[in-house]
Design a protein that fits this description.
Elements (H helix, E strand, L loop, with lengths): L6 E6 L2 E6 L10 H15 L6 E6 L11 H9 L3 H18 L5 E5 L2 E3 L1 H6 L4 E4 L4 E3 L13 H5 L6 H8 L3 E2 H7 L4 E2 L5 H11 L1 H8 L7 H4 L1 H7 L5 H10 L3 H11 L3 H14 L5 H16 L2 H12 L17 H6 L11
Parallel strand pairs: 2-3, 3-4, 4-6, 5-7, 6-9
Antiparallel strand pairs: 1-2, 7-8
Helix pairs in contact: 1-3, 2-3, 2-16, 3-15, 6-14, 8-9, 11-12, 12-13
């Protein structure tokens, strides 16, 4: 199978090994990587000589920092066609991973954000470490959690998923397991040996040899105030309730939410709540595709990426500027049917 500089694909002892290979960009996904992974999975799914798939990332910083949003920024400033095609292909890949018939072992070490969650957390064997830094930080760039993220965020214990979605804050490997984003914990220092054992002995023996009990989840321990605050009707109500809590963590969450795009926050709250009532990952990805296509036409998507990753002034000028200016009609417009709708 052909290799290229952005994604490395091989078969070793019956294991299809995929390495995301853009370490300088923390393996941020581009269209070549999405297409390469999709092609590999399709080929291996019907190949009896391949018994499982192992996904990893090159470099020391993490599996994948997300999608290549600078490319999406330039597309959004133009006609948006690249962004629409990228999301179409990416979300179809996420769905494929979610229903993959063979063991799909994802090594979620280091930074795993956004699109990195999409290519890893829908797999059926999801491994985190003590170095894992996971999150869905989209509201910080005027975007809304996607890649099936709202499916996972809507199915966490209590309202931990809404907390993760609206703050955009990273969480640990132990938290990822507690939230349902991961299954197994392997210490970082043993991960390379674990990966080799997957190839030589199979993933079940490797897990038996290397997986350990995860540390306690800090997020799970805070569920009482999280469930109370995030049950409020609007984002503004949630922030008000967070500020009334007598905990440093709640106050920090309120401050963080206050730095995010108001319209992205309002749409995210609705998206996660709607996703809870959808039955399949595919249905949620369909909703996310509509929302993402609408986001690409928004002011805040372009402005958020500009401020964080292009000009890097870290001073986005959101529009609308405050939550009270985000009316129901503006939020509902994000969920209008895309043309064409995503198909699987």
């Amino acid at each position: 199978m052909a290799e290229n500089e952005d994604i490395l694909v091989s078969v070793r002892n019956g294991v299809g090994v995929v390495t995301l290979n853009r370490p300088k960009a923390i393996n941020s996904l581009n269209d070549v990587m999405v297409d390469g992974l999709q092609t590999a999975l399709t080929t291996w799914e019907n190949d009896d000589a391949v018994r499982s798939v192992l996904l990893t990332g090159a470099g020391e910083r993490g599996l994948c920092a997300g999608g290549d949003v600078v490319a999406l920024y330039h597309s959004a400033k133009g006609d948006g066609s690249y962004a629409r095609k990228f999301w179409w292909d990416e979300y179809r890949l996420n769905a494929h991973i979610g229903r993959y018939r063979k063991p799909y072992i994802a090594l979620m070490d280091g930074i795993v954000m956004g699109g990195g969650v999409g290519v890893a957390a829908h797999g059926n064997v999801r491994v985190v470490t003590d170095k894992t830094k996971m999150g869905m930080p989209e509201v910080g760039i005027g975007f809304i959690p996607d890649v099936g993220g709202t499916y996972l965020l809507s199915r966490t214990p209590g309202l931990l998923g809404l907390h993760a979605a609206l703050t955009g804050a990273p969480f640990s490997g132990a938290d990822a397991i507690a939230l349902g984003f991961a299954d197994h914990f392997v210490p970082h220092e043993r991960l390379a040996d674990f990966a080799e054992a997957v190839v030589t002995d199979g993933h079940e023996d490797a897990l038996n040899s290397y997986a350990e009990e995860p540390p306690a989840s800090e997020l799970l321990a805070q569920r009482e105030w999280i469930d109370t605050c995030y049950a409020r009707e609007t984002v503004a109500d949630i922030v008000d309730d967070l500020r009334r809590q007598e905990t440093e963590a709640a106050d920090a969450a309120a401050h963080l939410i206050g730095t995010r795009s108001p319209i992205a926050l309002a749409v995210t709250l609705t998206a996660v709540r709607r996703a809870a009532h959808l039955h399949t990952l595919e249905e949620v990805l369909q909703q996310e595709f509509r929302v993402s296509v609408a986001s690409a036409k928004s002011h805040d998507f372009v402005e958020g990426i500009r401020a964080q990753l292009v000009d890097k002034d870290r001073n986005p000028q959101w529009s609308p500027a405050t939550l009270d200016l985000c009316d129901d009609a503006a939020v509902d417009a994000y969920f209008a049917s895309a043309h064409p709708d995503l198909t699987f």
